[in-house]
Amino acid sequence: MDKTVKIMVILLLCCAVVGAAALIMGMAWTGEQPSALVGASPTSATGMTSTALNAAANNTASCTPVTINQSDGTPITLPCQPERLIVANSDAAEMLIAFGAANKIVGVDQSTLSVPYIMDKIPNATGIGDWETPNIEEILALHPDAVISYSSYKPKNIDQIIAANITVISLDCYKLDILPSDARAIGTLTGTSTTAEVYARMIEDTVAQVNTRVKSIPDNECPTVYFESYTDYSAASNGSGSDEMLVAAGGRNIAENSSTSYMTVSPEWVVTQQPQYVMKVVSFPNPLSLAEIVENLKDREGWNTIPAVQQNQVYAIDSDIMFGPRAYIGLVYTAKILHPNTFQDMDPNAMLNDYAGKYVSETNVSEMVYP
To answer: Deepest in the core among 48, 89, 212, 234, taking most CB within 10 A?
Structure first.
């Protein structure tokens, strides 16, 4: 090959190289892919493929509806499991904490703010006003997925809350007979069903054990009891939670024939009934201690003739142990007071310590029953 031909071949090869380089640079500039990469998934700046990004977006947007039964038995369905809950019910708040769902509570009612063993677990929860008339603006500002209120005592402005497109879930979480079902509802709602089921079965087992023993007690050995509510001379009667507790524990309520759940009585009426026991439920904070309340009961005019006073069978009981998530322990306290021999092997103090260790700490630091 002569020198001229060799030079022409070299020039042609150089042109080919330059052209190929220009083509590749043009593709890079326009964003076009080389044929060898066609069909591969484009990648974002984070390194995630667009397919993965779409999947992540779909997972975020989709969720499974949650249906629970409220305290009155009516079902309610939420489109997703709630992550932000306002709890206008201190008993429900305690139950959420007990099951490990404290992180879902973003707001509480005014009365809950004063409960130290609850608030020390949810220090960032915001107050939304009184549970009877919660502040709509404060509720909306927290962007809740739902509000949990009492079922037996619904907020007075519940229509306004619902009109603001806020879901209201009605759960009492304080009545002994429906504590297990309320617990299971809370468990389903918050994704803590395993813990809730263990708790619910513990209540059912305790109540069954007490009921079995009470059934073995002859009627004439079930003592008469005057059970006073928070207000002086307000007797708990048929249909009240206190009457339910009393009967389940093997007591006979001297106000059982009342047509209302609570009846106002006179000191003289109580004297004429001659109850063998006097019990009073007390809410805290209270200016008086349980011991002082017991002494005041004994000092009521004419009550020194009552068998309960004469035999030192007058008791003051903290409402936290009679109603709420620990009511099953209150049942054992009451049964052991009325029938100490039948329930001598059941220790409500140990049960309370166990609850504080497993579920909600600091619930065993104050006196629950006096004496």
So the answer is: 89
Task: Count how many residues are written for the chain.
Answer: 371
Residue type, position 8, single letter: M
Residue (of 183, 185, 264, 198) closest to 231 by Cα position: 264
Nearest to 327 by CA among 145, 91, 118, 152: 91
Give the β-pairing of 262-264 and 234-236. antiparallel
Please choose, from the candidates 208, 264, 276, 214, the residue with its C-alpha nearest in 3D space to the C-alpha of residue 237.
264
Helix, strand, or coil here: 85? strand
| Overall fold of domain 218-370 | Rossmann fold (3.40.50)
C-beta separation of 149 from 130 below 8 A: no
- CA of residue 120 relative to chain centroid, distance: 15
Distance CA 84, CA 80 (A): 11
pTM (predicted TM-score): 0.82
- CA distances (Å), origin 111, targets 52, 87, 182: 47, 11, 21
Q: Give yes or no for residue 11 having a pLDDT over 50.
A: no
Q: Mean pLDDT score of the chain, rounded to an integer?
A: 87
Judge if the upstream peptide bond of residue 134 is cis by omega within 30 degrees of 0. no
Q: Report the distance separating Cα 101 and Cα 11, nearest Å.
A: 77
Contact 186, 95 (CB under 8 A): yes
d(CA 131, CA 109): 5
CATH class of domain segment(s) 66-196: alpha beta
Distance CA 86, CA 84 (A): 7
Q: Which of 284, 287, 312, 283 is nearest to 298 (CA)?
A: 312
Q: For residue 74, name the pLDDT band (cuts at 50, 70, 90).
A: very high
Separation CA 194–CA 8 (nearest Å): 84
Helices 179-190, 90-98: crossing angle, 10 deg rounding = 60
What CA–CA distance (Å, rounded) separates 96 from 102? 6
Give CATH 3.40.50.1980 domain extents, the chain: 66-196, 218-370
Rounded distance, CA 231 to CA 281, Å? 9
Residue 44 pLDDT exceeds 80:
no
Q: What is the pLDDT of residues 339-350, one digit of tens each?
A: 999 999 999 999
Contacts of 349 (CB under 8 A, 6+ apart): none
